[in-house]
Amino acid sequence: MTKEAQVPDRPEDVDAAFAEIVAGLEREGVGRRAPDLDEPDAAPSGTAVADPPVAEERQPPRPAGPPPTAWRGSDTEWDWSWSTDEEHYVPPEPPPLPRLRPLTIVALVLVAVAVALLVAPGLVGLAPRVATPIALVTLTCGGAMLLLRVRKNPKPPEDPTRDDGAQL
């Protein structure tokens, strides 16, 4: 047995297999272009367009009168006196922001110092080569302090009638 007989994917074999697949599809009618029946010129050869579509003859005549008001529900104009300023919702005043704890203030100061060292290390008199690592460590420490202080379970509100809405 030769080495060529063992190789099934020769170009001749692939071309023959492709031609066989295409011939099978053409026998089934795949690939034939269907004529567009909406256009009278596109009728298949040997056939003539006999009658116009029946659907056009059976359409009822349009009623004579004003055209419908497309998206509006009525022909009347909107009367702005129907709504008053007293009817709109006014949300209650938000509760005051809580006081920052000392450790939170320290973390915010660390982040601010780190940003200042990264932007302008010359303000403190440090070379950028020295100030950059210090600023990155300071920024990491300040960010970690802020993230570690986030509460996992918020404390319940002091006012039992206050509703915070849906909570997941």
Largest sheet: none
Distance between the amino and carboxyl termini: 72 Å
DSSP strand tally: 0
Q: What is the CA-based Rg, rounded?
A: 40 Å
Helix coverage percent of residues?
25-40%
Beta content comes to: under 5%
Poorly predicted sequence stretches spanning 5 or more consecutive residues: none
Count of alpha/pi helices: 5
Order of SSEs, N→C?
HHHHH
Overall 3D shape: flat
Topology record:
Elements (H helix, E strand, L loop, with lengths): L2 H4 L4 H18 L25 H4 L44 H18 L8 H21 L20
Helix pairs in contact: 4-5
Keywords: Membrane, Transmembrane, Transmembrane helix
Describe what is shown at a glance:
The chain crosses the membrane at residues 103-124, 130-148. The protein is an all-alpha fold.
Structure commentary:
Residues 25-36 have a biased composition (Basic and acidic residues). The chain crosses the membrane at residues 103-124, 130-148. Residues 25-93 are annotated as: Disordered. Keywords: Membrane, Transmembrane, Transmembrane helix. Among the domains are: 3-40; 102-148. The protein is mainly alpha-helical and 168 residues long. Helix 4 (102-119) runs antiparallel to helix 5. 39% of the residues lie in helices and 0% in strands. It has five helices and no strands. It starts with a helix and ends in a 20-residue tail after the last helix. The protein is flat and about 85 Å long.
